[in-house]
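The instructor's notes for this session suggest beginning with a concrete chain rather than abstract definitions. Hand out the sequence below and ask the class to guess, before any prediction is shown, which regions might be ordered.
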Amino acid sequence: MRPRVPAALLFAIASAIGRLPWRLLYRGGDAIAWLWRRLDARESRVARRNLELALPRLSDSERTTLQRAVLRTTARQALETLRFWTRPHADNLALIHAIEGGELFDAALQDGRGVIVAAPHYGNWELLNQWLASRTPLAILYRPPESAVGEAFLQRVRADAGDRVTQVPAEGEAVRQLFKRLRDGGVVGILPDQQPKAGDGAFAPFFGVPALTMTLLPRLAARSGATVLFAYCERVDWSPRFRLRIEAAPAGIGDDDVSVGVAALDAAVEAIARRDLAQYQWTYKRYTLRPSGRGEDNPYRDIERR
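After discussion, reveal the predicted structure:
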């Protein structure tokens, strides 16, 4: 069976979920979060371990309260993303009630040196993608799903009516494609807090813990001279209302010394995550790979179920 057929079925299911009223959609997310906690599912275990690593000074009760909030926002974000993927973009963008730093993006576009938009896993990054596409054509770096069906589904839901979004797989000729886009004054979107493969990153502190961090973004910035901006859509008061914020990157993000660049990158992502810890994606295994020579083991190994 061609992957387009099951992908179309998945899209139909996502569309049905996305048509639910917001109150039911969020209640569904809250139910999923409760089930994760009840069953001690992977999301619950990973979030708990990440919070132990990154926020060791929290008391057990404080960490448990934050973990519950993290799972709640994670589940809600998953369902609201189905809505954003399957509903008209104009309807989705109407949920952005405030934009801060938009003049930075406009100025960077006018400058013509290319723009790198670093979009951490905070708030709803898919809504951010749609806002960017409404302003300018852009290329998005992404990690392809392992299945052909997942890839076909992702290509469909992220498609833009005006073909303004180009999805670039994080493999092969990705660097060359992104550099060409920047050299021509275009816009590139990158999720900067995904753990790269061993050999494709450098360690830098993230919440005080060494984390393997992508060198791609700092190297692109150094080589292209493009403007680097951080951007995110954060939820306001647990409601389907969002504030879009754009911030200048910290000094050093495009330093010739890649260790300076990755340190600046992680510091910027951490500062954004600390705005509202519950809106950051703590269900992702950020610290799997450890620095060599320190005798550290994979911190998630003892919570993995086989």
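Then share the key points. DSSP finds eleven helices and nine strands in the chain. The first strand starts at residue 96 and ends at 100.
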